[in-house]
Design a protein that fits this description.
By secondary structure, the chain is α/β, with parallel strands linked by helices. The structure holds (2S,3S)-3-hydroxy-2-methylbutanoyl-COA (T1G).
């Protein structure tokens, strides 16, 4: 039974038990409705506690039911029965109350929460809006501006904030169940059903913020629908507002964007799975070593520190170690400024950080991540040193973004302990982590990589060994296609505009100016030296670099950078046109659709090749990589989902 009803004296307890996250599937909805009906016939019951077994309160509707015909009883009806029950219901929340889970709590007369709980309405992240009264009940409990943030951004709030907002009535002290029973025996004055209360009056900040959130949503539909539903909740009688909300919710359920976003939700969880790891326990992981304290190494060290690891960062000299420490402390100071860390947790985090110049300082590390200069000789020398200095079961990882990890692994006695962990810059911000699978890697090293990703809150994708793994290999393919379009008639800002219009946060050339053109230039020169230059090689990027145009850091790259703006540059137009002429190409105009078709076709073809070669385990992994590495619009579902139509 996924819903059990028990009584203790005049208190009834309704327990939801639907692993893994107590989603509100059809059986749970029916169980709740049945319990409400039974309790209305039990006059001896003075109050009802609804709580969940397992690790969390209800995490929402069952996303696996989306795309299927909705089955009765429908959640809004179940919640109305609870809201109008004879005896007041009290939601006892632990873990997370999300989506329909929070809507269930909002339909209760009172809400109490464990201090570590989080409460949110993430429906917009799935291309939906709350569909069971969330947009109508929430602004009857909290300020309109707070309701706006929760509903339109989908970001959860912690229990302390929830209490301050008026979303919950009390923070549980000690055991949640015992606290709930005590609360039920000493109920505050009954404020009546939430729907019977007047909505809060929005302040002057409400509309400007609402419009800003709609603009930030770019091509996604649900944030605008969420704002519209909230505006109705603030101005219409509750029953009319509920009807508006339900109509918008059902329309969004049929919108391709919600199907795409549900696809991404499950794809991101599946990407971190590898059949060979089924049944392999996550190894002990608390002490991390990082070798190399440049931008990547410092970012990786900070990411690990921010998630509670002890970190030792190894550099070659004391000066380099000091510079690395400054970089890491700068990131942690920013976390303190942004409130991610409190002064106390900031001090505790710093206490877990050490730098060193001798490899023996890594003797206790469970995992060591190398992030030194991208040169095979340098990396092999580092791994040989780690092999001697680290404990025998330490996993050794390389952050290399394109060198052959199999060759790196051959530098140690037991290659089974070498894995690739490819972070994206900035490492403490970007969600994606490519776990690269060398030929001789052992399950334990792979499981260590997966455990690290989970602890860092990153999205892991397993990648086979090839040039660029998954993300950079696809990026190289569509970058080459864009460069061919430059020769054929397009201009950088036209290609970037088409990509932004499609939903990318930034176009390819603008992004290259930001990162710097010299990195790719060095790689192209190396490939040329190895005789690996393609026949249809486009010289235009080299011509820019040879002219000293290395991107934003030199004031000129693909764009002219002035006063913080990236401006089309006639000099670049002239350089491109001259190169087309030199190759005897008659330039033609490209529409935004033509540009995006060529980019999408290239991405999809390279993605399919990566799957066919077994570099990626499944097509949806390509979607996960493109969305989380390069900002491919999430609401599209990703290039392979789009291709499947
Ligand atoms: N429905 C179905 N399965 C779910 C689920 C859900 N809502 N949430 C998680 N799972 C599965 C997930 O696929 C995985 O399964 C397992 O649970 C553990 O998840 C009416 C319409 C709750 C914070 O958007 O944010 O309510 O892969 O790996 O990292 O208005 O899951 O093991 O087989 O993520 O500890 C709104 C989505 C729905 C919450 C836990 N709710 N879930 O994170 O574990 S729409 C959400 C999460 C809605 C109402 C509307 C997270 C989590 P498997 P996990 P986790």
């Amino acid at each position: 039974m996924s819903v059990q009803l028990t009584t203790e004296g005049r208190i009834a307890i309704v327990t939801i038990d639907n692993p893994p996250v107590n989603a509100l599937g059809q059986e749970v909805r029916a169980g709740l409705l049945d319990a409400a009906g039974q309790l209305d016939q039990m006059p001896e019951i003075a109050a009802v506690i609804v709580k969940c077994a397992g690790r969390s309160f209800v995490a929402g509707a069952d996303i696996r039911e989306f795309g299927k015909p909705p089955q009765p009883p429908h959640l809004p009806d179940v919640l109305l029965a609870i809201e109008n029950a004879r005896a007041p219901w009290i939601a006892a929340i632990h873990g997370t109350a999300l989506g329909g889970g929070l809507e269930l709590a909002l339909a209760c007369r009172f809400r109490i929460a464990d201090p570590r709980a989080r409460l949110g309405l993430p429906e917009v992240t799935l291309g939906l809006i709350p569909g069971a009264g969330g947009t109508v009940r929430l602004p009857r409990l909290v300020a309109a501006e707070d309701a706006l943030e929760m509903i339109v951004t989908g970001k959860p709030v912690n229990a302390t904030r929830a209490q301050a907002m008026g979303l919950i009535d009390a923070l549980a002290e000690g055991d949640l169940s015992e606290f709930a029973k005590s609360f039920a025996q000493n109920l505050p004055d009954d404020p009546g059903p939430v729907l019977g209360r007047a909505p809060k009056t929005p302040g002057p900040e409400f509309e400007p913020r609402a419009e800003a959130l709609i603009r930030r949503a770019r091509g996604q539909n649900s944030p605008r629908a969420a704002v519209d539903a909230l505006r109705a909740a603030l101005s219409l009688p509750a029953d009319q507002a509920l009807a508006r909300e339900r109509a918008k919710f059902l329309a969004l359920r049929d919108d391709p964007q919600s199907k795409a976003l549900s696809h991404v939700f499950f794809a991101e969880r599946q990407a971190g799975r590898l059949d060979r790891l089924k049944g392999v326990d996550a190894p002990e992981l608390s002490d991390v070593g990082v070798v190399g304290g440049g931008t990547m190494g410092a970012g990786i060290a900070a990411a690990c520190l921010l998630r509670g690891f002890t970190v030792t960062l190894l550099e070659q000299t004391h000066e380099a170690a000091k510079a690395a420490r400054d970089r890491v402390e700068g990131i942690l100071a920013d976390s303190l400024t942004r409130g991610v860390l409190t002064p106390r947790s900031h001090a505790a985090t710093l206490a877990r950080f050490a730098t060193a110049t001798e490899a023996r300082a890594l003797a206790r590390a469970d995992l060591v991540i190398e992030a030194v200069f991208e040169d095979m000789g340098v990396k092999r020398e580092v791994f040989a040193r780690l092999d001697a200095a680290c404990k025998s079961d330490a996993v050794l990882a390389s952050n290399t973004s394109y060198l052959d990890i199999n060759e790196i692994a051959r530098a140690v006695a037991d290659p089974a302990r070498v894995v690739g962990l490819h972070f994206f810059s900035p490492a403490h911000v970007m969600k994606l982590l490519e776990i690269v699978v060398p030929d001789q890697v052992g399950d334990r090293a792979l499981a260590m990589g997966a455990a690290l990703a989970k602890r860092l809150g990153k999205i892991a994708v397993f990648a086979g060994v090839c040039d660029g793994f998954i993300a950079n290999r696809i990026m190289s393919a569509y970058r080459a296609e864009c460069e061919r379009m430059l020769e054929a008639g397009a201009l950088p800002w036209e290609i970037d505009a088409a990509m932004v219009e499609f939903g990318f946060p930034m176009g390819l050339f603008r992004m290259q100016d930001l990162a710097g053109l010299d990195i790719a230039w060095a790689m192209r020169k190396r490939r040329a030296a190895e005789g690996r230059q393609p026949a249809d090689y486009v010289r235009i990027p080299d011509l820019l670099c040879e002219a000293g145009r290395l991107g934003q850091k030199t004031g000129r790259g693909w764009y002219l950078h002035q006063d913080g703006k990236a401006l089309p540059d006639p000099e670049v137009t002239a350089l491109i046109e001259a190169e087309s002429a030199r190759k005897g190409i008659t330039r033609t105009r490209f529409s935004a659709d033509q540009i995006m078709n060529r980019i999408l076709t290239t991405i999809q073809a390279e993605g399919q090749a990566i799957v066919d070669e077994g570099i990626a385990a499944r097509a949806s992994d390509i979607d996960v990589v493109m969305i989380n590495a390069f900002g491919f619009p999430r609401w599209s579902g990703g290039p392979m989902h789009l291709h499947d139509g």
